[in-house]
Design brief:
The complex is a heterodimer of chains A (about 180) and B (about 475). Chain A is α+β, with helices and mostly antiparallel strands and about 180 residues long. Chain A has 5 helices and 4 strands; from the N terminus they run ααααββαββ. In chain A, strands 1-2-4-3 form a 4-stranded antiparallel sheet. The longest helix of chain A is centred in the N-terminal third of the chain and has 64 residues. Chain A is rod-shaped and about 135 Å long. Helices cover about 40% and strands about 30% of the residues of chain B. Classes of the chains: A alpha+beta (about 180), B alpha+beta (about 475). At the A-B interface, α1, α5, β3 and β4 of A face α9, α10, α11 and β15 of B. β3 of chain A pairs antiparallel with β15 of chain B.
């Protein structure tokens, strides 16, 4: 084989090498394009999710503004919260009306609608004027510290003594766990 | 662009050569030189751009004949076979032919052609001497062919002619047809020096006599072969003394024929017609056409292969250049794609981080929805417990006494408490009691805290004298401000 033929073969081999290199580059480019398109599709999806999450967070943020801060602050310890409620009941009006307080259902954990401990209590007292009763109701039911919900209230007029009325009030006391909010809210 | 041509004529194993510059304005011949071996003119060969070679080839066979019209390769075989039959030698002949014209023979159209055959050994013995520069050799033929072509091209006789080229040791006597194709050619051992003419007149006389005899034999041979009369034009070339010799020693055979001793080339510069005519063997080479070229067939193949290889080189070079451009383009495109991919990937990662942070925020905040439910369903929308009794006390008539009230949350509506009120009406009769209940119910209905749902009033004692009548009233205790909503 003469030298010119060898050179020609070398040229062809070089050409083949360049061709292989070109095909590799082309395949890599195509792969980059495909992956870029895939990632761009994911970015669009993430963009939509980001916008949706921002809307949801803004909605929740607005909800938070409608809930009293003291309620959201909740209680670190339900037992301690219950004890604080009992301390709250240690009020002169309770003594004035001789309110008897009974525990109808011990503290029980509920996860819905939030994590909380629910205790059922019964209050019984007698009154002669609506003012007295409504003072107690105001004391017990219109305070913001302890969430109390009326479950049953029976008001019965005595048949023996005029204006003597007995109240039996069943309430539920909610001791919610403290809500951990992000610092930016 | 000027080219250097080297023309070589091999006569009696002596290499006569001459360098000629071919320029647009014409040919510029240098002084003719002589070498006894091809190695001696190697420097001139290397310097030359093109080389033309002719040789006398005393063994050459010049023949005319009629051959059937067949394909070129078969025609070549037929001509070769005919040449072999003519020369009766065992070795291979190199044959080159030229179709003269179509003739009718035996009712069939055939080719009349002229061919020249040379034993292979004779062709290769000279050719191989120039192996190192064979790529430069453009034409390799017999000296008679060169002479015939040159005379026909320069003088354009228009008819057949005879030419006698006298060398120092031998001469070439040939008859050429009107198209410049050799019909008869002979190399005869009759020569005359180009130097000073000998003082002895017998030398010239003997030369003239010998030459006359050879010309006569050539004409006789021509007449036998071609059955035509001898040409009327003779060119006496190759020696500057021929006209003088012929003047003093008339050549009988040439009596009655036109004799020319010089050629007048139009495109040769720096050389007299006499000098040109003296060196017709060398200068005739530059007038060669493609006919009767004895460059070996394998050299043609080698040149075609070489041309193909060169074309392949050019194609490969062009392909490599294009491939490199393509590679550069693809590499640039790949770099751009890689950069875009990296940028997009970074954007994606940043976006993922932001979305992950938002997801975490929302995960932490999502319990707030439960807090809203707790607040709104159980705590926010509560009635005015501190005045719901006072409201009844204000609205109730003196004749009506409430005996009991029971308040319970409505399981179906967190903004409503079902209230069952039981009481007694003191009236003169049941109709008055009913009227009082209606009035009381109307007042409760107009209260922002209550909405009357139902009244149950069915006194057992309808007769006069009864003072009190029982009733029941189903109410909804409502948070302040929510009555109009329901």
């Amino acid at each position: 084989m003469n030298r010119r033929t060898v050179y020609l073969i070398v040229c062809i081999l070089v050409l083949v090498q360049i061709f292989i290199y070109c095909m590799t580059q082309k395949n890599n480019t195509d792969l980059y394009h495909r992956q870029t398109v895939q990632i761009e599709r994911n970015i669009r999806s993430l963009n939509a999710e980001e916008a949706q999450l921002k809307r949801k967070i803004a909605l929740v943020d607005n909800i938070i503004k409608t809930i009293p801060v003291n309620l959201l602050s909740g209680f670190e310890d339900p037992e301690k919260g219950f004890a604080e409620f009992l301390d709250y009941l240690n009020n002169p009006i309770v003594e004035e009306l001789r309110v008897s307080i009974g525990l109808t259902e011990a503290q029980k954990f509920h996860s819905d609608p939030v994590a909380l401990h629910k205790t059922r209590l019964n209050f019984k007292f007698r009154f002669l004027s609506t003012y007295e009763a409504e003072r107690f109701f105001n004391f017990l039911l219109h305070q913001d510290k302890y969430p109390v919900q009326v479950e049953d209230m029976k008001i019965t007029r005595s048949s023996h003594k005029a204006n003597d009325t007995e109240v039996s009030l069943d309430v539920a006391l909610y001791i919610p766990a403290k809500l951990q909010l992000p610092s930016n809210i | 662009m000027a080219k250097t041509i080297l023309t070589i004529s091999v006569v009696d194993d002596v290499y006569y050569y001459m360098e000629i510059e071919r320029q647009p304005s014409g040919l510029f011949p240098h002084t003719p030189q002589t070498a006894t071996t091809p190695q001696a003119l190697l420097a001139a060969c290397r310097k030359a751009d093109e080389i033309y070679i002719n040789s006398v080839f005393p063994s050459a066979l010049y023949q005319w004949g009629v051959f059937p019209k067949v394909a070129k390769k078969h025609l070549y075989t037929l001509v070769g076979r005919d040449a072999h039959e003519k020369v009766h030698i065992p070795e291979r002949l190199y044959v080159e032919y030229k179709v003269i014209k179509d003739v009718m023979e035996g009712g069939a159209s055939k080719y009349q052609l002229a061919y020249t055959g040379i034993p292979e050994q004779d062709v290769l013995s000279i050719w191989n001497q120039f192996a190192d520069v064979r790529n430069k050799v453009k034409h390799y033929t017999t000296t008679p062919v060169s002479i015939a072509t040159a005379i026909n091209t320069i003088d354009k006789p228009g008819d057949s002619f005879m030419s006698v080229v006298v060398g120092e040791k031998s001469s070439i006597i040939q008859i050429t047809n009107k198209d410049g194709v050799v019909e008869v050619a002979r190399s005869v051992p009759v020569g005359f020096t180009k130097g000073e003419i000998s003082s002895d007149p017998a030398v010239s006389a003997n030369f003239a006599q010998d030459l006359d005899r050879e010309i006569s034999m050539t004409i006789t041979f021509f007449k036998q072969e071609f059955r035509r009369k001898s040409p009327g034009l003779v060119y006496m070339l190759g020696n500057p003394h021929l006209e003088f010799i012929a003047g003093n020693n008339p050549i009988a055979t040439l009596q009655g024929m036109t004799v020319k001793y010089v050629l007048q080339p139009a495109n040769v510069q720096g050389m007299t017609p006499e000098q040109f005519s003296e060196n017709i063997q060398l200068l005739g080479n530059v007038y060669n056409t493609d006919d009767f070229n004895f460059i070996p067939k394998r050299e043609h193949v080698a040149r075609r292969v070489s041309a193909a290889v060169n074309a392949a080189y050019a194609a490969a070079a062009a392909a490599i250049v294009l491939a490199l451009i393509w590679a550069w383009f693809l590499t640039s495109e790949n770099s751009l794609a890689a950069r875009k991919y990296t940028d997009t990937l970074n954007d994606h990662r940043n976006m993922e981080k932001r979305v992950a942070a938002l997801r975490e925020d929302f995960r932490v905040l999502s319990p707030v929805i439960g807090w809203r439910d707790l607040y709104e369903n159980h705590l926010k929308n509560k009635p005015d417990w501190n005045m719901f009794l006072s409201e009844v006390a204000i609205l109730i008539p003196d004749e009506i006494i409430i005996k009991s009230m029971q308040v319970k949350p409505d399981r179906n509506n967190t903004r409503r408490w079902k209230t069952l009120m039981a009481g007694t009406v003191n009236a003169r009769n049941w109709q008055e009691a009913l009227s009082l209940i209606r009035v009381f119910g109307g007042k409760l209905q107009s209260s922002p805290l209550y909405k009357v749902e139902d009244i149950k009033y069915s006194p057992d004692e309808m007769k006069a004298g009864t003072k009190s009548f029982d009733f029941q009233m189903d109410l909804n205790l409502l948070p302040r401000g929510s009555k109009n909503e329901s």
